[in-house]
Records
---
Amino acid sequence: MLHYAVVFFVIAIVAAVFGFGGIAAGAAGAAKILFFVALALAVVSFFARGRAST
């Protein structure tokens, strides 16, 4: 999922360079959402794995 966040971030950068503001904003928003979802899943996975070993 973090891979997709990076892909959307790159798309946003390229779109911004070429002047496509709306597409850049949409891609940046999608990248932001995917990053925080990946971060939340990583934290949940970390705590679930720690709890299972005790």
---
Amino acid sequence: MKVVDILRVKGGTLFTVTPDEPLKDSLDVMAERDIGSLVVMEHGDLVGMLTFREVIQAVVKNSGAVGSTIVRTVMDDAPLTCTPETEIDEVRRMMLGRHARYMPVMNGKTLMGVISLYDVAKAVVDSQDFENRMLKAYIRDWPVEENAEPESKL
């Protein structure tokens, strides 16, 4: 299974922010849309990710206030990325290795979407569920051999 399979199911809705926007405005968008991340774009290029992790660290550092903080000062400016053709197992390894919950999907310099650890876990569970159902159906429909001798009862 590849990232493109997740994006196909998830859809293409993206929420972005610019690096010079106030952090407060980004938090309003995240709360309003009930999302845990925003892609930071500048002049059409991916320049970072803003997730609740960076937000919490910034608020704690600023004694519990957002203040006049701008996105650029708190964003992850080197986020993990993948391509639509990246295998899901590789994405899992990458996300677990960096403790990343969100990953932008890039096709060259074009942002295709963002996948979350939830999206990856759901795809894996759905795939395993499908495989289990197919195996159970196969076992249930196991063909009986015509030339088999009847079992003797002792």
---
Amino acid sequence: MSKVCVFLADGMEEIEALTVVDICRRAEIDLTTVSVTESKMVTGSHKIPVEADALLSEIDFDKVDMIVLPGGMPGTLNLEACEPLMAQVDAFDRQGKYLSAICAAPSIFGHRGMLAGRKACSYPGFESQLEGATVTENPVEVADHFITSRGMGTAIDFSLAIVARMKGQERADALAKAIVYKQ
């Protein structure tokens, strides 16, 4: 069974994080929410408290197939400032393991030089931070082991792309139909 971890930092965009959680759990993907703080309680950018399943120090990354980074401010900055998480992002890239980010968070991959030569998208105004990428305005871009997306309004598209990657397009299409979502 595939394992996905969604990383939560204070200031995250709640809808971007929790839509991934909801859609992936509906698809029966093993998903763990992970706080990058010293507490399981994380406060989103709109002051909504979210309790994570685990702390970063509790995660065995050898058993994780995909890292998901929600956007939001200052959530994206707080994720990027988390050195242990960034070490894992770098390791996943070297290993060709799945990395996904939405809104401002794809800028993290850009800052690390990971998007060079790949299509990518982000929240408007962050395009220049997708260093070396072919930037699009599509709701989602899937390029090699990366999935990027633009923001809260594309959270379902992003989540369904994750389901397609982990469980296949047929499963993603069936789930879209079940939630009455038109792509």
---
Amino acid sequence: MKFVELGLRGVWLIEPEVFTDERGAFHRSFCAREFEQQSLVSTVVQGNVSENPHEGTLRGFHFQLPPFEEAKTISCLTGALFDIIVDLRPDSQTFMQWVSAEFSAANHRSLYIPAGCANAWLTTAPHTTVHYYMSELYSLSSYRGFRYNDPVFNFRWPSEPRIISEKDRNFLDFDPASLQKD
């Protein structure tokens, strides 16, 4: 696996070594040893699958507060997506900055998002299936989110989202006070 750090500390694009033969292709999407060698969280307590039949489906921005902060490793199994990651770690030099990444089933890449960052994705192809490993269980009391088009961030999506859940559409703009537990 090749790890390419993006513009935020701890956010990595993961490019696997793909082996092909007459049967098809094989690659690893996760390896605890290689994650640990990169100082990434290798604990996996939950695996999620998001099936998105339509291009232009947006999910996010989502994150959890301590002590339930979660690292995520996201892979695209079918289709393609555009993901934006926002650094919400108040002590980080890149606090409230963001980076984006595109990945797909065709390029086999994955994205590692460290705890303390929020992310959202937009499907850029129909029938996009996303698998992601979580380092922490879902905690309703720690769960937070903010709008995909919050003007403070000036996000640049590749196209206007067409499908957004009511919950995601009704998130408020980001408020740094939201990083504090109620």
